[in-house]
């Protein structure tokens, strides 16, 4: 069983278009969709936006469906200004930029207590297999690197520049860090796929609303290629 978690309806709609023999199961407060993609048994879930929703959804998926791996699929804002709308970002790792225990000695901003690391690394073989599909998408730029997660939609050039200065990273969004943490603690392999929907700047809301469907479609296509290859 392959697990797929999307935060928004627009994101999961693109995955459901690829899924055959879909059975919807409501497990309050989430909707799970069981079926197959490219002949592989999958369960997709709509988590809703934000770290708490995503973590609870991921834990519920692990407990109820016991996936062998989890893919978090969706859109993100660009931290790296070279990224364009629709480009694909494969996470090498994720950082929760709003987690801050740096008031304590020898602690860094973003460092997760209990894990004692700032960055949670994605499963290497999943990351490498995803990035190796770059030749199948000649019109889309592929990048591999760190994704930043926080409970905020970044709609400010100043905020984007501050995040880049403090953490680096390629893109920012609101769920991947908590899904990575949940999967890591449960010893479940995981990968993160994001397609750029906006520039995490002063026009992010307008760009996000205009391009979420296009970007979600790109991310779903990549996931379909990955699942077919398993």
Features:
five-stranded mixed β-barrel; single chain; globular; 230 residues; 31% strand; alpha/beta; Rossmann fold
Number of domains: 1
- The total count of helices amounts to 6
Strand content: 25-35%
What gap, in angstroms, lies between the N and C termini? 11 Å
Sheet having the most strands: 5 strands, mixed, barrel
CATH architecture descriptor: 3-Layer(aba) Sandwich
Order of helices and strands: EHEEEHEEEHEHEHEH
* Assembly state (oligomeric): single chain
Helix proportion range = 25-40%
Structural class: alpha/beta
Mean pLDDT: 96
Radius of gyration: 16 Å
CATH class descriptor: Alpha Beta
Number of strands: 10
- What CATH calls the topology is Rossmann fold
Strand line-up in the sheet with most strands: 5-9-8-6-10
Q: Could you name the ranges where pLDDT drops below 50 across 5 or more consecutive residues?
A: none
Dominant shape:
globular
CATH H-level homologous superfamily name: Nucleoside phosphorylase domain
Quick structural gist:
The longest helix has 26 residues, at 204-229. This protein has one domain (2-229): 3-Layer(aba) Sandwich (Rossmann fold).
Protein model, in words:
With 230 residues, the protein is α/β, with parallel strands linked by helices. It has six helices and ten strands. Helix 1 packs parallel to helix 6 and helix 2 packs parallel to helix 5. The chain is globular, with a radius of gyration of 16 Å. A five-stranded mixed barrel has the order 5-9-8-6-10, surrounded by four helices. 34% of the residues lie in helices and 31% in strands. The mean pLDDT is 96. It has a single domain, classed as Rossmann fold, CATH 3.40.50. Strand 2 and strand 3 form a beta hairpin.
């Amino acid at each position: 069983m392959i697990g797929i978690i999307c935060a928004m309806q627009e994101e999961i709609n693109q995955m459901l278009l690829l899924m055959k023999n879909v059975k919807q199961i409501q497990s309050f407060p989430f909707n799970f969709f069981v079926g197959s993609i490219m002949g592989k048994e999958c369960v997709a879930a709509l988590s809703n936006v934000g770290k708490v929703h995503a973590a609870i959804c991921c834990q519920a998926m692990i407990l109820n469906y016991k996936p062998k791996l989890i893919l978090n699929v969706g859109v993100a804002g660009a931290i790296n200004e070279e990224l364009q709308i629709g480009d694909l970002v494969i996470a090498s790792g994720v950082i929760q930029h709003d987690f801050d225990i740096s008031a304590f000695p020898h602690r860094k901003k973003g460092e997760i207590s209990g894990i004692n690391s700032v960055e949670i690394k994605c499963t290497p073989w999943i990351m490498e297999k995803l990035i190796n599909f770059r030749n199948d998408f000649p019109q889309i730029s592929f990048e591999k690197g760190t994704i930043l997660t926080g409970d905020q939609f970044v709609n400010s050039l100043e905020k984007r520049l501050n995040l880049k200065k403090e953490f680096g990273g390629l893109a920012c969004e609101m769920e991947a860090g908590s899904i990575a943490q949940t999967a890591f603690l449960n010893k479940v392999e995981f990968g993160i796929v994001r397609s750029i929907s906006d520039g995490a700047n002063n026009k992010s809301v307008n760009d996000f609303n205009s391009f979420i469907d296009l970007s979600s479609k790109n991310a779903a296509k990549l996931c379909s290629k990955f699942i077919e290859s398993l």
